[in-house]
Write a structure and sequence with these properties.
The complex is a heterodimer of chains A (566) and B (233). Chain A has 566 residues and is of the alpha/beta class. Chain A has helices spanning 19-30, 46-49, 121-124, 126-130, 140-154, 182-193, 242-248, 298-306, 364-368, 400-409, 453-472, 485-488, 542-561; strands at 2-3, 10-15, 35-38, 90-91, 199-200, 252-255, 258-265, 271-278, 284-294, 330-337, 357-359, 378-383, 413-420, 429-437, 443-448, 476-477, 525-527. Chain A has 13 helices and 17 strands. In chain A, strand 14 (429-437) and strand 15 (443-448) form a beta hairpin. In chain A, helix 1 runs parallel beside helix 7 and helix 5 (140-154) crosses helix 13 (542-561). Helices cover 46% and strands 0% of the residues of chain B. Chain B is globular and about 60 Å long. Chain B is an all-alpha fold. The longest helix of chain B has 25 residues, at 116-140. Classes of the chains: A alpha/beta (566), B mainly alpha (233). Chains A and B meet through helix 6 and helix 10 of A and helix 1, helix 3, helix 4, helix 6 and helix 7 of B. The complex binds flavin-adenine dinucleotide and iron/sulfur cluster (SF4). Flavin-adenine dinucleotide is lined by residues 15-21, 38-41, 71, 100, 102-103, 107-109, 111-116, 258-260, 295-297, 300, 304, 496-497, 529-530, 540-542, 545 of chain A.
């Protein structure tokens, strides 16, 4: 055991450097606090390491997915994926949760999908609407000003949505969205003819330059796969924005390869610092600070707390809620070959990485009237453009006919990926595995996961809608409509929106933290990632993680100013 | 997660997830353990297992992509693969043949990779190459590479059977996989992209302009045909 490398003792230790940790570092250093950031992964510099323009044919196996690189060779994920060497996790029998983790500075922001919808009023008060789960201690109006600021800070393009529970951003928050592509325009015409809305997606990609003396970012140049990372800074990742900006204040020290094992506390029950293992040498260090921020990602933040404090009970767990209320989004993918799109005229269909439009949930009224057999919503993310047609749209021929078929089928498939809300249930949680430790000797997480009828019915409904859309386009549906919905749903964790294992609330007896992420039981311990979510919503979580981290950081800074940690 | 990668990866996901049964039926369907085009069907041979090798790991140097594993195919096998490549995706006035373009090297790289999908394909491809020779020798007393174009074509036709059964199942699966791999390997090359008329991969400053006039005209016609109005914005 030795003292860590930080020279001056820090005001705040931040564990993790992804969306939440990056926001904390940016906001707290700007507020004048000295921060020590501990990141389990290795140092990472997109400028040096992202092979942005190389063709996929330069990659081994043409960039196909492998167990080493589950999203393909050039994907920016470092040292991680569904498995991290030497850092296992387990599942209770028959539950099969999958946990995505990177081990790199910047965490998952280096390779995420960038879809950043705002959550709406219903999303924060779900219990009030349908009697399931719990309400958040805050509502949309509490978060809205932070959404406004985060959208401007990270750079989001998009347009108005104008639908129930899909709040629009004030005029100056968004950059203009890119023009839709042909398949997206076809989807729009089709869906709108059936009363289903299609709107410009909100995407954390700049469509205008964003000047900054330290970390200037350029508008997207409409060409490369964002999941490799973006050396021009057009897509939001903390490594090209918050982290360099925070470092420029002179108040941020970053230590990478620092695997935090537990939070240290004193007799008075306050956090005094953390203990971490140097991943390269295996040496344990202790570092201290006046406050500790956990932003290691939902599962890891909860694991840290469960491994701290009282053995068997964990830290900040008087409520017993730590590890409970785990959710992930539901996921399923549908696609169809659209003969009308075969042999269509070529043009540059790259645009910004990812979808330009999407289908937001539109059935809130029907749901309120009891006409749906599931609670909560879902949305569809859209894909399909020119490229190599997948084998399932090619005839079983060889020779000249095959070449002709490939040319004709390129760009003729449309896909819809469903993302839906999961309601917390008692069978879905994480806990410490009593027998298994990782290579640092830290006990690992064991997951239990189950979907309820709500999620299964919701996916079945989404499939009917997706297929109806495809049929209206005279499409040939490529997925099997006779499979039970359970069989087409992504496994727990696979949508990588895990949330809720240290939820916030108004009552210390039923929640782990208050609405500022402050642990009820440990006054100077603040949680900032998805662990604190009181429910999931169908909307991707990262914009909300960022907004809540900003809100929590500013409150923490204010408390420092008021002398709370003197 | 939002699908964000270019289509090559979607291809891969689809390739892994799509049962072969969903291929559209071919023109020439063949049934039973023997087919009029082939006569008695040779036994399916086993394939030697992969010697222990390593993958590229979870943190390879992305600026200098490298294939980390040794290749498998003998010179004779590679010749046959290239020959098959030029049959499956032959040269025409738009692009060269897959064999000519060296897509066989990609097939070799693929079946030599120490990952589960690729290992499954290794058994299929190596077994298939061996089988082609056995069948060809049984039928014509000569290895597949030397029986001549028309006879090879007849064999390929037979291996596009819609509902292969019995001894034909594995050989048909072999040609299916090989066709998949050639399509992937060929159309991800610059020459293949050009063949498909792919326009893109070009950094373009300024707002994304959206579809060209031609593309919009085509869409308008499609919308009219589908009675969806003619909105193209
Ligand atoms: C492929 C993909 C696509 C996605 N698409 C979207 C999308 O379109 N929209 C959206 O909203 N969200 C999306 N997400 C989810 C999004 O990435 C996460 O919600 C977000 O990154 C969470 O931020 P975080 O800061 O909580 O965690 P992370 O970004 O995971 O950062 C946590 C960091 O903490 C480090 N860490 C972990 N344990 C320790 C420890 N013990 N000690 C020290 N450091 C530790 C990790 O190494 C990591 O760097 C996607 C994710 C992936 C992988
Ligand atoms: S598409 Fe745009 S945002 Fe994405 S990596 Fe390329 S330049 Fe960056």
């Amino acid at each position: 055991m030795s003292r860590g490398p930080a020279t001056a003792p820090a005001d705040v230790i931040i564990v993790g450097s992804g969306a939440a940790g990056g926001m904390a570092a940016y906001s707290l250093t700007k507020a004048g606090l000295r921060c020590l950031m501990l990141e389990a992964g290795r140092d990472y510099d997109p400028q040096q390491e992202v092979n942005m323009l190389a063709p996929e044919s330069d990659a081994p196996l043409r960039g196909s997915a492998t167990p080493d690189k589950p999203f393909g060779y050039f994907d920016a994920t470092v040292d991680g994926g569904w498995e991290v060497d030497g850092e296992p996790y387990t599942s209770t029998e028959g539950s099969g949760f999958r946990w995505w983790r990177p081990r790199m500075l910047g965490g998952r922001t280096n390779h995420w999908g960038r879809h950043v919808p705002r959550w709406g009023a219903y999303d924060f008060k779900p219990f009030s609407r349908d009697g399931l789960g719990v309400d958040w201690p805050i509502g949309y109006d509490d978060v809205a000003p932070y959404y406004d600021r985060v959208e401007k800070m990270i750079g989001v393009n998009g347009g108005p949505i104008g639908l129930e529970n899909h709040p629009d951003s004030p005029a100056d928050c968004l950059m203009p969205p890119p023009a839709p592509r042909v398949p997206e325009l076809l989807l729009k015409a089709t869906a709108e003819s059936m009363g289903i809305p299609v709107r410009a997606a909100h995407t954390a990609v700049l469509t205008r330059d964003m000047p900054d003396p330290v970390a200037p970012r350029s508008a997207c140049f409409n060409a490369t796969p964002c999941s490799r990372g973006c050396t021009i800074g057009a897509m939001f990742q903390t490594t090209t924005s918050f982290l360099p900006m925070a470092k420029a204040t002179g108040r941020l020290t970053v230590v990478t390869d620092a695997m935090v094992a537990r939070v240290l506390t004193n007799q008075a029950g306050r956090a005094t610092g953390v203990e971490y293992v140097d991943r390269k040498t295996g040496v344990r260090h202790r570092v201290s600070a006046r406050a500790v921020v956990l932003a290691a990602g939902t599962g890891e933040t909860t694991r840290l707390l469960l491994n701290s404090g009282e053995p068997g009970r964990g830290l900040a767990n008087a409520s017993g809620e730590l590890g409970r209320n785990l959710t992930d989004s539901t996921g399923a993918s549908f696609s169809a070959f659209i003969p009308g799109l075969a042999d269509r005229p070529r043009y540059n269909e790259d645009g910004i990485g990812g979808q330009h439009v999407y289908i937001p949930f539109w059935l809130y009224q029907e749901q309120q009237r009891g006409e749906l057999d599931f609670a909560r919503g879902y949305h569809f993310e859209v894909w399909g453009r020119f490229g190599v047609p997948s084998p399932n749209v090619l005839p079983r021929v060889w020779g000249a006919d095959l070449k002709k078929a490939v040319r004709s089928a390129s760009g003729a498939t449309i896909g819809l990926s469903l993302r839906g809300e999961m309601i917390p249930n008692k069978q879905t949680y994480c806990e410490i595995d009593p027998g298994v430790k990782d290579r640092f000797g830290i006990p690992v997480l064991r997951f239990a996961f189950r979907f309820s009828r709500h999620e299964v019915n919701q996916v079945a409904h989404g499939r009917r809608i997706a297929h109806a859309l495809f049929e209206r386009m005279n499409g040939r549906i490529l997925d099997d409509p006779s499979l039970p919905p359970e069989k087409i749903m992504a496994a727990g964790g696979e949508i990588i929106h895990e949330l809720g294992t240290a939820r916030m609330g108004t009552d210390a007896r039923t929640s782990v933290v208050d609405s500022y992420g402050r642990a009820w039981d440990v006054d100077n311990l603040v949680l900032m990632d998805g662990a604190i979510f009181a429910s999931g919503a169908h909307k991707n979580p990262t914009l909300t993680i960022l907004a809540l981290a900003l809100r929590a950081s500013e409150q923490l800074a204010a408390r420092f100013k008021s002398g709370a940690f003197a | 997660m939002t699908p964000s990668r270019r289509t090559t990866l979607q291809w891969m996901i689809a390739a892994a997830a799509t049962p072969l049964a969903r291929w559209m039926p071919p023109a020439s369907a063949a049934e039973g353990a023997s087919t009029p085009l082939l006569g008695p069907i040779a036994d399916w041979p086993g394939a030697p297992p992969l010697p222990t090798t390593k993958g590229y790991g979870r943190d390879p140097t992305l600026m200098e992509p490298k294939v980390a594993w040794p290749l498998t195919l003998t010179r004779a096998q590679r010749t046959t693969i290239d020959l098959l490549g030029d049959m499956i995706l032959p040269a025409d006035d738009v692009s060269p043949g897959a064999g000519q373009l060296g897509v066989g090297a990609f097939i070799d790289e693929w079946i030599s990779a120490p990952y589960p999908t690729q290992q499954g394909d290794r058994a299929t491809v190596l077994g298939g190459l061996d089988w082609l020779d056995r069948q060809s020798i049984a039928q014509h007393r000569k290895a597949f590479a030397v029986i001549g174009e028309p006879m090879r074509g007849t064999m390929l036709d037979a291996l596009c059977a819609a509902a292969p059964a019995g001894k034909l199942e594995m050989p048909v699966k072999f040609i299916d996989r090989l066709r998949h791999l050639f399509v992937l390997g060929f159309y991800t090359l610059p020459e293949g992209k050009k063949d498909m008329g792919y326009v893109g991969d070009q950094p373009t400053e300024g707002p994304y302009p959206g579809p060209s006039v031609d593309a919009r005209t085509h869409l308008a016609a499609l919308l009219a045909e589908l009675k969806l109005g003619v909105r193209t914005t």
